[in-house]
Specification:
The structure holds 2 protein chains of 2 kinds. By secondary structure, chain A is mostly helical. Chain A folds into 3 domains: about 90 residues; about 100 residues, Alpha Horseshoe (Serine Threonine Protein Phosphatase 5, Tetratricopeptide repeat); about 100 residues. Helix content of chain A is about 80%, strand content about 0%. The two termini of chain A are about 40 Å apart. By secondary structure, chain B is mostly helical. The chains are: A mainly alpha, B mainly alpha. At the A-B interface, helix 12 of A face helix 5 of B. Chain A: It holds the Pfam family TPR_EMC2. Chain A: It is found in: Endoplasmic reticulum membrane. Chain A: It comes from Musa acuminata subsp. malaccensis. Chain A: Belongs to the EMC2 family.
Chain lengths: ~300, ~260
């Protein structure tokens, strides 16, 4: 997760470099460290450094990392010849290296030659069966071809070995959601919450999945997770506030017939409604009447 | 009085050919005795007076010893870097590491997921038949046995041990040969008589205060103390992990299956 100060520094450096000030290498270093995806800028400034032999020699050992970075950016911007040149230079310097082999596979992927890319990656995997990045590229190939179930299978096999990789769990959760396999997606979100319990988006997504699956127990759990999202974000998450209201209404609808022994307290619902109205008053006062009428309808119908 | 003292010390008196540093052991004692006017025949009490140590000791013993140990440490670091063999990661080891990470996350954040999911994950890990973390009784191997059965690991350990033992032995022998038989330093706090044997190895006078130590103890002090210095100048993960490795060697009854208990 990019921290706020570093993001601000990145933007500042970017504007500085764009307007002709120095500091291009620092900018590129920061982009590399934060793994930000600013491919066009990286390409432009990286190429200007690499084409200037004086600046290139000033980089020293970092030159090769820069080549790799520029090759990535070029492939992202669909400039395949630039990427091919960079990769050629790199493979001359480091023959037979896995890292360069990965770049070559990426180039094939970028050009759309899926079968050849797969073959190249499999060859690399024979030598390094535990290379995480290559496994992830194979998943990406399957996903790019639209074959989501194959991607799911590959990702599951990857996660059997590397089960502590939370990025992979996130990817799997998103794929399951797009495939509408909600129960499996819920499992993945649980994994994410386990590994990073203080990150609000995971709680929110989990709550949404539970709400979508439906059923009284799931709705109650969903309400709890919406509430925890509100706690974690300090009440600023509008979607969670809506979620709380909707959950309460759905629960009330389901428990209409039974006697309400466990009235969890409509406090939460009314508080959320109030917070919603306050939020809208501050940020979008024109829509406030809509919200008020909607809430009134919901209360009447429940 | 002085003649009496000199009489007593006659076997220790320097002859013409002794080196300067051998005379060092006499000078302080003579000085001390002359100050106090004590008769050796009667004095049995311990003397808590100050010996004045020649600054030449500091110049020619303490500082060179430290410098030599630092240099040897740096040399060992580079040699170990050259000799290090790259070990390809093993699938089983990686998988186990990841499983442990995931199980640890489960234990730490168990309050954040619904009870049902927690229980299902718990069974997944600790199930009798195919639980990932379940180790049937009697099958868990002792870490030591495991380490010796894997030839690569054993070779690695041997190399590391050798690179640690040989310089230590050599330096110790060097110190003993050249720097023995005199008082090298004074420890700033008082000690009991039990430490005498350990700290005053070359000094054969039982009446010198225990705070005055020989250079052997300075060697040991450096051995354990230079670790901090090495982590400064060599960066993290440096070679001077002697004390850690010694602790590892002694603590081999370590059973990993009982770690997460």
């Amino acid at each position: 997760m990019v921290r706020a100060e570093e993001a601000a520094r990145l933007d500042r450096l970017e504007s500085q470099v764009e307007n002709g000030g120095g500091g291009a290498e620092e900018y590129l270093c920061l982009v590399r460290k934060l793994k930000a995806r600013r491919s066009d800028k990286v390409l432009k400034h990286g190429l200007s450094i690499l084409n200037d032999p004086k600046a290139r020699s000033k980089l020293g050992g970092e030159e090769w990392t820069l080549y790799e970075q520029v090759a990535f950016a070029a492939m992202d911007c669909q400039q395949h010849d630039v990427a091919k040149d960079c990769i050629a230079i790199l493979s001359k310097e480091f023959p037979g290296s896995t890292r360069v082999g990965r770049l070559e596979g990426l180039l094939l992927e970028a050009k759309g030659a899926w079968a050849e890319a797969e073959k190249a990656y499999e060859r690399l995997l024979e030598d390094n069966p535990l290379d995480q990045l290559i496994h992830k590229r194979m998943v990406a190939i399957a996903k790019a071809q639209g074959d989501l179930s194959a991607a799911v299978n590959l990702l599951n096999k990857y996660l059997e070995i590397f089960m502590a990789d939370h990025d992979a769990w996130r990817e799997l959760a998103e794929i399951y959601m797009s495939l509408q396999m909600y129960k499996q997606a819920a499992f993945c979100y649980e994994e994410l919450i386990l590994s990073q319990p203080t990150v609000p988006p995971y709680h929110l997504a989990y709550a949404e999945v539970l709400y979508t699956i439906g059923g009284l127990e799931n709705l109650q759990t969903a309400k709890k997770y919406y509430a925890s999202t509100i706690t974690l974000t300090g009440g600023k998450n509008t979607r969670a506030l809506y979620g709380v209201c909707l959950c309460s209404i759905a629960i009330n609808q389901l428990t209409k017939g039974r006697n309400k022994e466990e009235k969890e307290g409509s406090n939460l619902q009314s508080l959320a409604a109030e917070a919603l109205q306050r939020d809208y008053k501050e940020r979008a006062p024109k829509k406030l009447p809509l919200v008020i009428s909607m809430l009134k309808n919901m209360k009447l119908n429940s | 009085f002085l003649s009496r003292g000199v009489e007593f010390l006659s076997p220790f008196l320097p002859s013409k050919g002794t080196k300067r540093w051998q005379r060092l052991q006499i000078r302080p004692l003579l000085f001390f005795l002359s100050q106090k006017g004590l008769c050796f025949g009667g004095a049995a009490a311990s003397m808590a007076e100050d010996l004045v140590l020649d600054t030449a000791i500091r110049d020619w013993v303490l500082v060179p010893l430290s410098v030599v140990m630092v240099l040897i440490g740096v040399l060992r670091y580079f040699v170990s870097k050259l000799m290090r063999s790259h070990q390809a990661p093993d699938l089983k080891v990686v998988k186990e590491g990841q499983v442990i990470l995931r199980a640890r996350n489960l234990r730490a954040a168990s309050g954040f997921i619904p009870a049902k999911s927690f229980r299902s994950r718990k069974t997944y890990f600790t199930n009798e038949e195919n639980g990932l973390l379940h180790v049937p009784k009697g099958q868990s191997q002792n870490a030591q046995a495991q380490m010796f059965s894997d030839p690569n690991l054993a070779m690695d350990m041997m190399k590391k041990n050798l690179s640690m033992i040989i310089p230590q032995t050599l330096t110790f022998a060097w110190v003993n040969f050249f720097f023995s038989g005199f008082v090298a330093a004074k420890i700033p706090f008082p000690l009991t008589q039990r430490f005498r044997g350990m700290l005053q190895n070359g000094i054969d006078l039982s009446t010198v205060d225990v705070s005055y130590v020989s250079s052997r103890s300075w060697y040991f002090l450096n051995l354990f103390g230079l670790r901090g210095l090495f982590s400064l100048i060599l960066g993290e993960e440096n070679a001077m992990d002697d004390t850690q490795r010694m602790m590892q060697m002694s603590g081999f009854g370590f059973d990993p299956s009982r770690v997460i208990a």
